[in-house]
Automatic annotation (TrEMBL), chain A:
Family annotation (InterPro entries): CU044_5270-like (IPR047789)
Keyword terms of this UniProt record: Membrane, Transmembrane, Transmembrane helix
Region described as Disordered: 1-21
Membrane-spanning parts: 49-68
Protein name: CU044_5270 family protein
Record-linked NCBIfam families: CU044_5270_fam
From TrEMBL, chain B:
Similarity comment: family membership: Belongs to the sigma-70 factor family. ECF subfamily.
Organism: Catellatospora methionotrophica
Protein name per its UniProtKB record: DNA-directed RNA polymerase sigma-70 factor
Any single GO BP term: DNA-templated transcription initiation
Gene for this chain: rpoE_10
Keywords: DNA-binding, DNA-directed RNA polymerase, Sigma factor, Transcription, Transcription regulation
Taxonomic lineage from the root: Bacteria, Bacillati, Actinomycetota, Actinomycetes, Micromonosporales
Domain RNA polymerase sigma-70 region: 13-74
């Protein structure tokens, strides 16, 4: 074997574990001050802690979330099909059934919109304490966006997201999409799947498989992104139809809220790794996403609220 | 994208190179530490964006290299990379579908090399860096890197011959080799 053959064979032997399992998002990093503009006091180590805890967990999407008991969720006007009377015992526990219930509940939510998509989330990783963050993400070009981080004493600190704009605030499986693009997504699961796959570059040698791509895109749509309820419902249905989705049964998320976990397992190098979506069994709302490696949650994000607002950006002191 | 658009520039750099930085972090520190390494590396890149050169990959990998060295105690890194290397061998051995019979042998041989040899080889074969760029990552001259790569390659070839991997099916590697 020549030397060149050796290197070529080594290239061919490249392990799959060198590829990240999730498309990450740079927005949290850009929430931190840059060195040229920063004062000494602003360059505290807390920034690194927050980043380390938050970044892998955020992974897919900077932005947005499902409607968690916000105003629109409490307005079931003219939605006789929404059956709040169901008891938990009647609800499905299989992965497809849980997702289809979630789809139905999403559909019964009226569509709203606003100049800002406001999302509050908790992030954690490994054994580090979690951090809580709220983002005000502009949906209209020209408006500023801002992140807010909760301090240990419960107060909030604003971290303006420099030059973040409506054009790059919302990432769908790693690529920025405008709110208009998201709103125009198909409401039929098969068409949604087809549309998403047009954005998937399967020829990129490092890309994951199409189903994994669809899983991550779908997770973003049901959890984070500001999409109309009917698009979210289609995303739930698309997820339900993906191969390999399994129900993991009743769980509690990292904030102690009860839900049903649905997982997609990949055979990794240290055993199995699993991406989990936790859905409230009675409301069908997404509660959390978790990434499990072996028998522990390597990273997690809980959704604490998401809503539309018209701004302006609030002062950190006004958040609670 | 204008020079006055740091977010645009950073986002482009991030999306273009994030996977490569992750791959380097895994190959150098193991998967358990890789996310932290990537996060810290890009935080440095963001904070010092004006210092990031065009064609930033060697610069980024150099930062990642320092992050790994400074942030993690050596025994933690060693444990993590040891687990990673074992996992490569297991994975390659289990992967009978792709028909690449010498993968397991190759990865086992690579696992047996020292950190420096493995780094020189993977920067070249997996990151696709030229000797000049790889030299920038590890902080030596191109000529020195060439020598390092040459020696590492020889040791890899020796290890592949010297330590046949126990496997569940016949290996065609030797036959292929002798036919050349």
């Amino acid at each position: 074997m020549s030397h060149r053959d050796t290197l070529r064979a080594l290239t061919a032997a490249r392990p799959n574990s060198l590829d990240p399992t999730e498309a990450a998002d740079p927005a949290l990093i850009m929430a931190y001050p840059q060195e040229k503009t920063v004062t000494r006091t602003a360059r505290r180590p807390v920034g690194r802690l927050v980043l380390a805890a938050g970044l892998p967990a955020v992974a897919l999407a900077v932005t947005g979330a499902i409607l968690l008991n916000n105003q629109s969720g409490q307005a079931p006007t003219a939605q006789p099909s929404a059956p709040p009377a169901s008891t938990a015992a009647e609800l499905p526990t299989d992965a497809g059934g849980v997702l289809l219930v979630a789809a139905q509940r999403s559909e019964s939510t009226p569509a709203t919109t606003g100049r800002y998509w406001v999302i509050r989330r908790g992030h954690g990783e490994n054994s580090r304490p979690g951090v809580e963050e709220e983002q005000w993400l502009a949906t209209v070009q020209g408006l500023p966006s801002s992140g807010y981080f909760r301090n240990a004493d419960g107060s909030w600190t604003a971290r303006p997201m420099q030059d973040h704009s409506a054009a790059n605030n919302f990432l769908l499986a790693g690529s920025p999409r405008t709110v208009a693009e998201l709103a125009a997504l198909p409401t039929d699961p098969a068409l949604l799947r087809k549309k998403l796959l047009t954005w998937y570059d399967g020829k990129d040698g490092e890309a994951e498989g199409g189903d994994v791509y669809l899983f991550h895109a779908g997770m973003g749509l049901v959890i984070d992104l500001p999409v109309p309820p009917r698009v979210r419902a289609a995303a739930y249905r698309m997820l339900a139809a993906l191969p390999g989705m399994t129900s993991l049964g009743p769980v509690t998320d990292q904030h102690g809220r009860a839900g049903i976990a649905i997982g997609l397992t990949r055979q990794g190098d240290f055993g199995k790794s699993q991406a989990r979506l936790i859905v409230d069994r009675t409301t069908g709302q997404a509660l959390a996403r978790e990434s499990w490696v072996g028998n522990r949650a390597a990273s997690w994000t809980v959704l604490l609220g998401a809503r539309w607002a018209d701004g302006p950006l609030p002062q950190a002191s006004t958040l609670n | 994208m204008t020079p006055g658009d740091p977010n645009g520039r950073f986002t482009a750099i991030y999306h273009r190179h994030h996977r490569q930085v992750y791959a380097y972090a895994v190959s150098r520190a193991g998967r358990t530490l890789a996310d932290d390494v990537v996060a810290d590396t890009f935080l440095v890149a963001w904070r010092r964006l004006e210092a990031v050169p065009e064609g930033p990959l060697p610069w980024l990998l150099g930062v990642a290299r320092n992050v790994i060295r400074e942030r993690f105690r050596d025994d933690i890194r060693q444990a993590s990379i040891a687990a990673e290397l074992r996992a490569w061998a297991v994975e390659a051995d289990a992967d009978v579908a792709d028909g690449v019979a010498d993968r397991a042998t190759m990865l086992a041989a690579l696992a047996g090399l020292g950190d420096d040899d493995r780094e020189a080889l993977t920067l070249t074969a997996w990151q696709g860096l030229s000797a000049k760029d790889a030299a920038r990552v590890v902080g030596c001259s191109s000529a020195t890197f060439f020598v390092r790569l040459h020696r590492a390659r020889k040791r890899l070839e020796q290890a592949m011959v010297a330590s046949p991997v126990e496997r569940r099916r016949p290996v065609r590697l030797t036959a292929q080799e002798s036919s050349r």
